Amino acid sequence: MSPLSWRLVGAGLLAVLLASAGVAAAEGDRPPPPSRIVMILFRGETDVERGFRDFLREEGIEAEITVRSLDRDLTRLPSVISEVRAARPDLVYTWGTGVALGVLGTFDAVAPETHIHDLPVLATMVSSPVGSRLVEHLGPSGRNFTAVSHLASLSSQLNAMRAYRTVTRLAVLYNPIESNAADTVTALRALCATEGIDLVAEPVPLDATGRPRADVLPDLVAKVAAREPQFLYIGPDTFIGDNRDTVTSEAIRHRIPVFTGTELEIRASNAMLGLVAPYYTLGKLAGFKAQQILVNKVDPGSLPVETLSRFTYVVKMSVARQLGLYPPMAVLDYAEIVP
Fold first, then answer.
1. Do 101 and 43 contact (CB within 8 A), yes or no?
2. Eight-state DSSP code of residue 200
3. Which residues form the signal peptide (predicted)?
4. Which of 51, 224, 230, 266 lies at 20 to 30 Å from 88 by C-alpha?
5. Measuring CA to CA, which residue among 133, 161, 118 is closest to residue 260?
6. CB-CB contact of 266 with 274 (8 Å)
7. Which residues on neighbouring strands pair with residue 64, listed in sequence order?
């Protein structure tokens, strides 16, 4: 072969090697595909999901998010779980205790044929992870999920009420067929017994179909108001939350302030006082956990089941003014005052 031919062959080999290196470099520079997330929501998107989406965007985490809302009907959950099993996303996101339990089961009763046990799950808005038996104790679940709760402890909520006024009697209305609500009332009874507080707890009657009756709420508020409690408490109760305007307006009419452990009753209705986790901030915490799972490849079972480290003490001044119950000066030092 002539020297010219060798030079041509060498040039050709060099071109092939350079092209191969270029392809490899291009493949190395190619961004990873977006993470696939399926959201299973109880009642459509909330500020929690807005905070979650904003966190992912701010951190540059590309994600394809598919939303499945149950529209408040948990009987739709099994078909959604079947869809998720087939899709096998990178992360399953749930909203609410009922959805989390339906997806994951309790810590001592997991059915592989029913529950999702082999995909990463991030459960949000779990009111009582221990009380609902989602986990045996706070901390890492040791399973395929982590979770965030939106409620301060009942003792912290009671202390928040006492910071405002003396509490010797507390009232609560609740949906007896909602596990969150019933479990909270059980725990509240135990706490009030320990603290020497009289608890007036009224379950909402059910109609012929077994559903709680909204039409009796004004009468129930009047009934507990006759016992002169210092507060009417609204806890994690979807039915009472859905009827928050009726409950809070009737309470004001009977000159009973409402204390809430969740945000909507004070920001979107007329509770006077609350110790709450801002939904948006809770969504940011959920986004951080998703980052650990999707980007840092942390096992979700090693991440703690937890709530926010700080809650917001909120006073609705318009209601306080209506009731003539102005906040103590000490409360004004740390409370968020809303109109």
1. no
2. E
3. 1-25
4. 51
5. 161
6. yes
7. 36
Per DSSP, the residues of 70-83 read: -TT-GGGHHHHHHH
Map out the domains of the chain with their CATH numbers: 35-150+278-307 (3.40.50.2300), 154-276+312-338 (3.40.50.2300)
Give me the sign of the Cα torsion angle 321, 325, 331, 335. negative
C-alpha 248/C-alpha 245 separation (Å) is 5
- Provide Rg for the chain, Cα atoms: 26
The DSSP annotation for 126-142 comes to -S-TTTTTSSSSSEE-S
Give how far Cα 296 sits from Cα of 109, 188, 290, Å: 30, 39, 9
What are 136's two structure tokens?
Answer: 């045996």
Write out the DSSP string of 2-25.
-HHHHHHHHHHHHHHHHHHHHHHH
Instruction: Say which residue the tokens 């009731």 belong to.
Output: 323
One pLDDT digit (tens) per residue for the chain, 339 residues:
544 344 434 445 444 444 554 544 445 567 789 999 999 999 999 999 999 999 999 999 999 999 999 999 999 999 999 999 999 999 999 999 999 999 999 999 999 999 999 999 999 999 999 989 999 999 999 999 999 999 999 999 999 999 999 999 999 999 999 988 999 999 999 999 999 999 999 999 999 999 999 999 999 999 999 999 999 999 999 999 999 999 999 999 999 999 999 999 999 999 999 999 999 999 999 999 999 999 999 999 999 999 998 999 999 999 999 999 999 999 999 999 999
Which residues have a Cβ under 8 Å from the Cβ of 324 and sit 6 or more positions away?
A: none
Q: Tokens 């210092």 label which residue?
A: 230
Sheet holding 121-124, edge to edge: 63-69, 35-41, 91-95, 121-124, 145-149, 304-307, 139-140
Q: What backbone torsions phi and psi does residue 77 show, to the nearest 5 degrees? A: -65, -45
d(CA 339, CA 315): 9
Angle in degrees, CA 220, 223, 226, rounded to 5: 150
